[in-house]
């Protein structure tokens, strides 16, 4: 066995020589001996070297580290390493080496030596002998002596050929020379390319020799060595000019100019951090392609950071963008619509339900740029009744954001919702109440400026603080910046993901896809079908997804690519999430694709010529079919990863469960399937809470606890599963229970409950469970880490090429040796995947990462790359157990998991606040805190809104509190929440309208829910009223935050239930009759107001206003000379912080407001014919108000039972 050993391969010279030396032929193995294992040794492994750590100063250790040594090559050289080099020569001789390749020291110990003369290293010498920063250099004898310049990487390739040349079998002298010029000519070339002049220090040969000796005596070995090199041509040293003896063996050597251009020209500018892509490139508001004449023309806003050529190309593509935004419209088959008609079949009422809400598409421009389009469909205000959303038919429009930045779907969704809301504000409010002249442009440009500013902050952060998204806060979006009091209370926050804060790179799209949601696909089709789709994509087959909802198509197609991205794989083929009809011919393309089509046109597949073999997934019904494939070869072409093989294949997941104790080793695919089943089960608990998973008996607190427990146990569940696979078949009762539990989970996945577990819109598209998403990403990362293993084992280097490339045969051999060969369920997939372009691109990117020395242990690095780096650095095997342990430890330490914690807290709070059981704590404070958190539009608001829609849907029978309290929180959000909440609530307007006709056996409950729904519905359809109320609420928030009170306030204790004209006539001095004396009034301090002793209390028939029919109190009346003292007399200091609010909602008058938070006290009992419910709430202390500026939501710890005649609302803010 012949082994080539390379010593010092981690040094500067060794790293470059290793690229070519690894191509040496005739050796059974190539081993690199290094001092320490780290990033540099990983680069050697990627080239094909086997790395072994050894102490260079330990001769005995060196001998043991070089068994079967044939040739030893050393790159260890220099004045400081002479002793170390001699020790290695002695060790090579003791190990039986036949040749030592180095300088001429081996003759002293009698070992055949090949001495290599290269001259100066052209890619290093200028850094060593000249000061490139100050542009100073030394010339000996005017620098007229000639040198041989050679690039270090070229040395390795020529040496690899020389080791197979019989001329050097017993040693000798090898001369390698790239180019021969004088030192002055070489410096002139640097001056030319850099555009700067050197300042020279000229020395004679004798002066240089004297300085060399002086530096040596001072101990400056490197300085002395530099002068020694500069004086070598003067002394005629060997190796300075070897043109006659130089050998190249046909290797094309780099010229000096090429090397200088590659290594010296402005390296600082090359290393400067680049700016990220702008948040958006173009915003469009486009009408339906067949819009009527009354529909306004398209409106667009360009990015403040734009490329004019790209901008012009995008503007030309506006008609094509409209076809992607309305993919259901087929111009070829649609009837002709003339523009003269004010209305046509494509105009809708607000109450017409449509599945076209929000989705994405990809567009390839003629310039080659790929644009990602984010679409939101909406109904604009009516041209006549602008303030009424529910009046009239109008044409549907689409808001579209085009951007080159991939990912961040939730951020763009929240931006589009804000754009829709401010567009409604612009059309509804009068000009003097407009916040901005062009609100859409103001919002988008400010977001781009915030993104670029946050990117600069992010890039200057220390590494330990990176990996966490930053928050962009916009002030004055709705109310403007002209009124200073509104800037601190009119806030909208957007979470900017890290993918938009770093410069774009070749793998930016992969990283962005890795952060997309995976759960929508798992929720729609279950674990078994999701893994089948993954298998089809890894095999590069053609896949078609079918659904009636483009939102679902886009979400599931993104989830499919997100599964691939967990292994740093990128889909290089055709990808159309929602395909418009004019692109139908692409379905017959003879290459792989992933395309989504709408259900109404799926019948056209039967008449499509050239469709070929394709996998079709019906997302709405969870059915899967194949076309053009032989039934006998389907499992080979699209392997099923949800089946196991223990002495044969099983046809169902249940048979896999039955073999848990058979003693067969667990496979990564089986572990992946089991973990995904657990994740889906935990996700359903988190999404549906108490209603669907516990038959209406489990509270939100219990559901939250169950979710937390399940997610924490997922990492241990896999370990138990692996241990069970390796155990004997004799299981105790606990093992049987474990198997039964898995069977239950599989049953849930295979046959979901048609009523509560069906994949509806709320569960599949709207609910975002970041905690479960993180667990799913970890599970897929573990699977891909086991699938790829160590990349170095299936790399090879072609002769004459320095780059390592994929060796497909080595890959299959490696997987076969790992126990995943013929007969295993994953083997067909490995055979298919080995032949794909995806694998070749994956290997190419990994090699480039190592070659370019990209950092792989930063917080921004994907989890897959972090795990690979950790395994190689610590020499850990890529076995399933080790991979699971490392992956979960690194994931737990990731700072990006904080967003999952914040989001889960928001969902948990919303679930508890809308639960059947009384809230444990201060209900009003919790609601106020939730509203404050919902100012973050991109994650928390969408998550809380999904909880409210689930609660409203699940409000029948005994669950009536779910719907009622959800409506109360929604009303608070409409009053005090961000602008995007208006669009969020408009999406569920049909659900709120249905709650106006709520049915229940208890009439009082029915009236409460209906009144609450009517109040919210009235706000949403009357946009003028809604925006005015939000303005008043913002002013009230500012007053609370600054401890300010209005100059004039209305006494909230009195409510008049008669028309104003009747009251005016009764109060006028010239009116008929006499003005009745004011009866006793309840005092805020609990005592009766003073009355006039001489005037008896009026009777019922003497009350002209019909306000005070009767009144009883619990304390006696105190006489007073002035009957108005009870109203105008100020409170004494000891009770100045107390105030009463009457909780009565008068239909058509003031909306419900928000109260203050304080310590409750006993209410005053008032007995009147209409029985108003009086809820006492003390005013908070000034310090409390200052510290809790958003404590605005007024609700008791247990919501009061409001009689039907009163209504559920409060109006403490005095909103008229």
Automatic annotation (TrEMBL):
InterPro entries: cDENN_dom (IPR001194), DENN_C (IPR043153), DENND1A/B/C (IPR040032), ENTH (IPR013809), ENTH_VHS (IPR008942), NAD(P)-bd_dom (IPR016040), NAD(P)-bd_dom_sf (IPR036291), Tripartite_DENN (IPR037516). One of its GO terms (biological process) is endocytosis. Residues 280-855 form the UDENN domain. GO terms for molecular function: guanyl-nucleotide exchange factor activity; phosphatidylinositol phosphate binding. SMART domains: DENN. Residues 1193-1216 are annotated as: Disordered. Residues 899-1030 form the ENTH domain. One of its GO terms (cellular component) is cytosol. Residues 1197-1206 have a biased composition (Pro residues). This is UDENN domain-containing protein. It comes from Fistulifera solaris (Oleaginous diatom). The lineage of its organism: Eukaryota, Sar, Stramenopiles, Ochrophyta, Bacillariophyta.
């Amino acid at each position: 066995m012949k082994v080539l050993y390379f010593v010092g391969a981690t040094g500067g010279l060794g790293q470059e020589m290793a690229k070519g030396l690894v191509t040496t032929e005739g050796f059974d193995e190539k081993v690199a001996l290094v001092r320490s294992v780290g990033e540099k040794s990983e680069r050697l492994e990627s080239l094909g070297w086997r790395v072994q750590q050894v102490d260079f100063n330990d001769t005995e250790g060196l001998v043991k580290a070089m068994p079967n040594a044939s040739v030893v090559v050393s790159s260890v050289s220099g004045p400081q390493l002479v002793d170390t080099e001699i020790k290695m020569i002695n060790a090579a001789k003791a190990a039986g080496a036949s040749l030592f390749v180095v300088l001429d020291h081996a003759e002293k110990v009698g070992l055949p030596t090949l001495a290599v003369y290269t001259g100066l290293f052209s890619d290093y010498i200028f850094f060593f002998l000249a000061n490139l920063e100050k542009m100073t250099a030394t010339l000996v004898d005017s620098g007229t002596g000639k040198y041989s310049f050679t690039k270090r990487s070229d040395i390795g390739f020529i040496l690899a050929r020389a080791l197979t040349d019989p001329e050097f079998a017993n040693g000798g002298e090898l001369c390698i020379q790239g180019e021969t010029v004088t030192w002055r000519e070489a410096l002139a070339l640097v001056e030319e390319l850099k555009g700067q002049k050197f300042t020279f220090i000229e020395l004679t040969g004798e002066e240089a020799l004297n300085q060399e000796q002086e530096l040596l005596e001072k101990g400056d070995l490197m300085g002395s060595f530099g002068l020694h090199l500069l004086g070598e041509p003067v002394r005629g040293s060997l190796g300075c000019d070897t043109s006659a003896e130089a050998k190249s063996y046909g290797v094309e050597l780099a010229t000096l100019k090429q090397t200088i251009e590659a290594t010296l020209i402005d390296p600082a500018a090359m290393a400067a951090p680049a700016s990220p892509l702008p948040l958006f490139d173009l915003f469009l508001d486009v009408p339906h392609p067949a819009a009527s004449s009354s529909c306004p023309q398209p409106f667009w806003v360009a990015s403040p950071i734009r490329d004019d050529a790209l901008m012009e190309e995008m503007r030309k593509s506006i008609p094509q963008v409209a076809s992607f935004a309305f993919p259901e419209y087929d111009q070829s088959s649609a009837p002709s619509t003339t523009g003269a008609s004010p209305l046509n079949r494509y105009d809708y009422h607000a109450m017409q339900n449509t599945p076209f809400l929000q989705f994405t598409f990809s567009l390839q421009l003629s310039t080659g740029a790929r644009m990602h389009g984010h679409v939101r469909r909406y109904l604009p205000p009516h041209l006549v009744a602008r303030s009424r959303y529910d009046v009239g038919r109008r044409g549907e429009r689409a808001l579209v954001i085009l951007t080159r930045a991939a990912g961040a779907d939730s951020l763009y969704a929240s931006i589009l919702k804000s754009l829709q809301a401010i567009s409604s504000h612009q059309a509804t409010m009068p000009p003097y109440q407009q916040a901005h002249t062009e609100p859409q442009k103001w919002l988008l440009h400010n977001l781009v400026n915030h993104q670029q500013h946050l990117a600069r902050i992010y890039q200057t952060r220390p590494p330990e603080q990176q990996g966490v998204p930053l928050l962009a806060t916009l002030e004055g979006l709705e109310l403007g910046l002209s009124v200073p009091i509104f800037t601190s209370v009119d806030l909208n926050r957007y979470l900017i993901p890290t993918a938009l804060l770093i410069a774009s790179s070749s793998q930016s799209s992969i990283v962005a896809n890795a952060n997309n949601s995976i759960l929508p696909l798992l929720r729609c089709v279950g674990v078994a079908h999701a893994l089948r789709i993954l298998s089809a994509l890894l095999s590069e087959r053609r896949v078609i997804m079918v659904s009636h909802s483009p939102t679902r198509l886009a979400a599931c197609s993104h989830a499919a690519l997100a599964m691939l991205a967990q292994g740093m794989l990128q889909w290089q083929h055709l990808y159309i999430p929602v395909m418009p009809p004019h692109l139908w011919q692409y379905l017959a393309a003879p290459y792989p694709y992933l395309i989504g089509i709408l259900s109404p046109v799926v019948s056209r597949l039967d008449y499509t010529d050239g469709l070929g073999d394709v996998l079709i997934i019906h997302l709405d019904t969870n059915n899967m079919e194949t076309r053009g494939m032989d039934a006998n070869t389907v499992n080979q072409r699209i392997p099923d990863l949800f089946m196991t093989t223990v002495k044969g294949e099983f046809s169902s997941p249940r048979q896999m469960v039955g073999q848990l104790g058979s003693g067969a080793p667990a496979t990564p695919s089986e572990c992946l399937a089991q973990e995904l089943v657990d994740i889906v089960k935990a996700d359903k608990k988190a999404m549906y809470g108490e209603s669907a998973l516990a038959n209406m008996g489990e509270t939100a607190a219990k559901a939250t606890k169950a979710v937390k427990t399940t997610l924490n146990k997922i990492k241990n569940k896999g370990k138990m599963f692996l241990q069970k696979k390796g155990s004997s078949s004799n299981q105790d009762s606990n093992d049987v229970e474990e198997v039964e539990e898995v069977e239950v989970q599989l049953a849930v996945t295979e046959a979901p409950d048609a009523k509560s577990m069906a994949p509806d819109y709320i569960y599949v598209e709207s609910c975002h469970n970041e905690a479960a998403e993180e667990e799913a990403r970890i599970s897929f990362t573990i699977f891909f880490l086991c699938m790829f293993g160590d990349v170095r084992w299936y790399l090879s280097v072609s002769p004459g090429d320095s780059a390592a490339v994929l060796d497909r045969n080595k890959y299959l051999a490696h997987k076969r040796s790992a126990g995943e060969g013929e007969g295993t369920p994953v083997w067909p997939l490995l055979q298919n995947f080995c032949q794909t372009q995806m694998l070749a691109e994956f290997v190419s990117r990994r090699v480039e990462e190592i070659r370019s020395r990209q950092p792989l242990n930063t917080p921004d690095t994907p989890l897959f790359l972090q795990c690979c780096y950790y395994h190689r650095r610590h020499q850990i095997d890529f076995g399933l157990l080790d991979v699971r342990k490392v992956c979960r430890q690194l994931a737990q330490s990731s700072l990006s998991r904080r967003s999952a914690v914040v989001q889960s807290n928001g969902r948990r709070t919303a679930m508890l606040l809308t639960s059947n059981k009384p809230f444990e704590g201060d209900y009003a404070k919790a609601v106020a805190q939730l509203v404050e958190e919902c100012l973050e539009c991109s994650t928390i608001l969408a998550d809380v809104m999904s909880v409210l829609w689930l609660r409203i849907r699940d409000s029948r029978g005994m669950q009536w509190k779910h719907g009622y309290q959800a409506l109360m929180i929604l009303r608070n959000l409409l009053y005090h929440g961000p602008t995007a909440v208006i669009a969020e609530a408009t999406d569920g307007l049909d659900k709120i309208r249905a709650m106006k006709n709520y049915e229940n056996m208890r009439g009082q409950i029915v009236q409460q829910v209906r009144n609450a729904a009517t109040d919210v519905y009235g706000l949403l359809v009357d946009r003028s009223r809604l925006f005015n109320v939000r303005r008043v609420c913002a002013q009230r928030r500012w007053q609370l935050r600054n401890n300010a009170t209005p100059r004039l306030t209305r006494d909230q204790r009195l409510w008049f239930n008669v028309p104003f004209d009747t009251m005016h006539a009764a109060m006028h001095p010239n009116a008929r009759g006499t003005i009745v004396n004011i009866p006793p009034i309840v005092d805020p301090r609990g005592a009766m107001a003073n009355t006039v002793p001489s005037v008896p209390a009026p009777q019922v028939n003497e009350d002209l206003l019909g306000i005070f029919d009767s009144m009883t109190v619990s304390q006696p009346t105190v006489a007073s000379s002035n009957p108005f003292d009870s109203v105008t007399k100020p409170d004494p200091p000891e009770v100045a912080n107390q105030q009463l609010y009457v909780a009565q909602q008068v239909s058509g008058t003031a909306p419900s407001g928000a109260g203050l938070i304080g310590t409750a006290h006993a209410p005053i009992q008032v007995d009147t014919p209409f029985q108003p419910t009086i809820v006492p709430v003390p005013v908070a202390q000034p310090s409390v108000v200052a510290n809790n500026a958003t404590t605005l939501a007024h609700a008791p710890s247990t919501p009061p039972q409001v009689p039907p005649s009163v209504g559920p609302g409060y109006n403490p803010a005095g909103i008229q």
